[in-house]
Amino acid sequence: MEHDSVLRFGEVPETRLDEALALAYLAFHTTPEDDAKRKHHYDTLRECARVGAYDGDRLVGLMATYDFTLSLPGGELPAPGLTFVSVAPTHRRRGALAGMIAELYRRLGEANVPLACLWASEDAIYGRFGFGTSTRGFTVEIDSSRPLALRIEPDGRPLRLVAAADAPALLGPYYERTRAERGGRMARTEAWWREEWLVEKDEEDASMSPPRIVALGEPLAGYVIYRTKKDNDGPGLVRLDELEADTPAVAAALWRYLASIDLTQKVTAWGRPFDDPLLHFCADRDQVRVTGVVPSLRVRLIDVPAALRARTWAADVDVVLDIRDGQLPANAGHFRLTAAPDGCAYEPTDAPADLSMDVRELAACYLGDTPVRELVRASLVTEHTAGAAATLDAALHTELAPHTMDGF
Ligand SMILES: CC(=O)SCCNC(=O)CCNC(=O)[C@H](O)C(C)(C)COP(=O)(O)OP(=O)(O)OC[C@H]1O[C@@H](n2cnc3c(N)ncnc32)[C@H](O)[C@@H]1OP(=O)(O)O
């Protein structure tokens, strides 16, 4: 009988890309709206590394990985991004995903790749595989039927519209600088800008306008990318896709601009960084309402020592961590972490632990997002030595909140 058959895991060759794409459309309940969209998916899949699950010769599971580079506090690392994770509905809950993950971890281990990352379609899937939520954002809604009330003076320099064709060259270097200031951000290629950020027709809502880009300052001091929607039955909408600014005054000017666009009465923004100054400098929090918190990038520490050594540390720490790891035994055990602003060592030890945690909790703290103390209070980290979590938090601290806008 089919459900007794044993699954096999391995490469998905280029010759089977049509089948792989059909499987992804089946699992995600989608059909491409036109040939161009299908070709885009096909080309994306062709460029990704791919793992499949096979029942006999039939492809019943697919996982692809983008070749990303992720910013860390004070550094960056390659971090393959999982995407197109799909299992045929006839073969669900038989270990296809678990087997593909095991095959992926084997490959990444062989290639000395220390991290992997993803956005989850459902929250409950990936924690068991050691992924922790490493960046978060919030969604915000602005009532723009009246001018945006501000407590600070917005930057008064003129704003200018930028053609989408010119945007990668202008915004690319600016965005790249922000990666040095915040963990959790992907390096963007020109193709990524064009195909993911500046694509004419919005992937999720075809009734949205093409992307509009507005810049402030020369040299560039800030920018917004947004789309608008005119609703014939109600007020139009501005959907902010990205806002970056050198100073709060520049940010204030850009937010005020978004809230002033004619024939619209609402601005929505998704995935804003946790430390967005808007929430402080707006004068009326009834006008600027936080409507949700979004778990963003999930990170898997494949090689914990290499991952910890690649980031910088804000303060001295000397703690023994007892790490559990259900998939990668090399990460499990007692390790002494000695870190300081000039470097970090992470070595196995027989010493008793100061803190015990699963590797997914370490991932949640890794980029400076969730404080270890919060996880102690949630009983997800055990503190054996009083004060150990606070000391580790001080060392993990980052000036700016980690943040990811590139969904994939
Ligand atoms: C990065 C991305 O691409 S995210 C997109 C993920 N894909 C989708 O959402 C598409 C639709 N869903 C699917 O294709 C499949 O259901 C998948 C990929 C989510 C899961 O694949 P499966 O082969 O059924 O998972 P598998 O059998 O390996 O399950 C492994 C474990 O995860 C659990 N699990 C799997 N899916 C889920 C889920 N959606 N919610 C909670 N737990 C889950 C299983 O119960 C199992 O737990 P156990 O080890 O305690 O028994």
Write the topology of this structure:
Layout: E1 7-11, H1 17-28, H2 35-47, E2 49-55, E3 58-66, E4 69-72, E5 75-78, E6 81-87, H3 96-110, E7 115-118, E8 131-133, E9 136-143, E10 159-162, H4 167-181, H5 190-197, E11 212-216, E12 222-229, E13 236-245, H6 248-258, E14 264-273, H7 278-281, E15 288-295, E16 298-301, H8 304-310, E17 317-324, E18 333-340, E19 343-348, E20 355-358, H9 359-366, H10 372-377, E21 381-383, H11 388-396
Parallel strand pairs: 13-14, 17-20
Antiparallel strand pairs: 1-2, 2-3, 3-6, 4-5, 7-16, 8-16, 9-14, 9-15, 10-11, 11-12, 12-13, 17-18, 18-19, 20-21
The structure holds acetyl coenzyme *A (ACO).
Keywords for this structure?
408 residues; alpha+beta; Aminopeptidase; Nonspecific Lipid-transfer Protein, Chain A; seven-stranded mixed beta sheet; five-stranded mixed beta sheet; 11 helices; 21 strands; globular; binds acetyl coenzyme *A
